UniProtKB/TrEMBL annotation:
Keyword entries, A-Z: Coiled coil
All residue ranges annotated as the UspA domain in the record: 4-146, 153-291
Coiled-coil regions listed: 58-85
Tagged with keyword Coiled coil: yes
The protein, known as: Nucleotide-binding universal stress UspA family protein
Family to which the UniProt record says this protein belongs: Belongs to the universal stress protein A family.
InterPro entries found in the cross-reference section: Rossmann-like_a/b/a_fold, Universal_stress_UspA, UspA
Gene3D superfamilies found in the cross-reference section: HUPs
Amino acid sequence: MDRIRTILAATDFSAHAELATQRAGLLARDLDAGLELIHVHTGLGPGPIWSDPGGGVLIDESRIVENLRERLETVREALQRKYSITAHAIIQTGTVHRRVHERARDVQADLVVIGATGAGAIARRLFGSRAQTLVRTAQRPVLVVRQPVADAYRRVLVATDFSDDAERAARLGMTLAPEAAFTFLTTLDLPAHHSEPVMGLDETERAARLQAAREHARKQLRALADKHGHEASAILVRDGRAADELPDIAREIDAELLCIGAHGKSRLEAGLLGSTSLHAVAEAPCDVLVAPHRAEDT
């Protein structure tokens, strides 16, 4: 399993960010990891005096930053008390995803934790649309927290296409939830109506090919589970597009955490979060752990 030594949690003090910091605190305690908190102040930006919300008097931005610093310190102290951990906190100004990535690099974070809003809207209250940019451009694993925090994860869904990134996500999930029940899943995105003319197959031959593909996928899943010491874990092979199937399957098994790689084997979207992962982050009813393609720190 991959060791988690340092966790970086980002917050804007919203209710959704509170879920993220609570999960980060719990993980820091259970994994004996260091916890770093960050709030990124994006600045007030230029504007005419008469449009200033202070009623025509320029706002002292330093006072705003100091207020944010006090709020972040309150969060830090509360987490330390609740989870009996040591946490550090920093306020930075600038573009959210750049500052978070820079801080993750500086502290050598093994995991970045952010909050999420309801289904279909990633952290709109946390960073607005910037959250999607943060996840897409991450070079470190990102945990997107959606569910209230009660205890350690108990049910984990590992979605894989057998790529390196997907296997890394599985290993990280096992690190975050060593006592959880795991389900290993892969989907077969096979055309339902167009394979016969192209391949010259009749319905019987096509059905036989599909069944053979399913059996091969089951063997691959079992080998993956066995490799990581999960011989008794459930395995699922479903027909359909992963982006469409993942949210429904997560609901079906009542998963609390979904683990997925950022890129598939093709690398067609290298440097960006793959469409399946992005859809999972947006639509899954549970927390989502995204493992990006491993890259050297810069």
